[in-house]
Amino acid sequence: MAHENPVELDRIWNNYGYFISPTSGENFGHAIIESLSNGVPVIISDRTPWNDVEEFGAGWVISLNNAERWAEVITQASNLEVTDYDRMRNQAIEYVKYKFDLSQIQEQYLNLFRD
Q1: pTM for the full predicted model
Q2: Which are the contacts of 84, defined by CB distance < 8 A and separation ≥ 6?
């Protein structure tokens, strides 16, 4: 996916059910936010700044030291009912809106380049 045209990313994300990242550390986690903003729930380690995603209903956060929980969650995710999965997809998008006021960010960028 890394070599795809950025304009095509929205279409590409729609081909995926979940974004799974058992990372040992993330400074920001751009791919995590990109996934969530495209309505793709995440299964991530607790070593990212997005540890509240599970509380929001947009995915799961799991300790890297708990392989059994990783297996449980992946099984649970693959067996979700369509309505539950659709709700989680919506929550993923809402999570990003909650975390980032995109209109404010856009205004800040425009102000940066004015004058």
Answers
A1: 0.81
A2: none
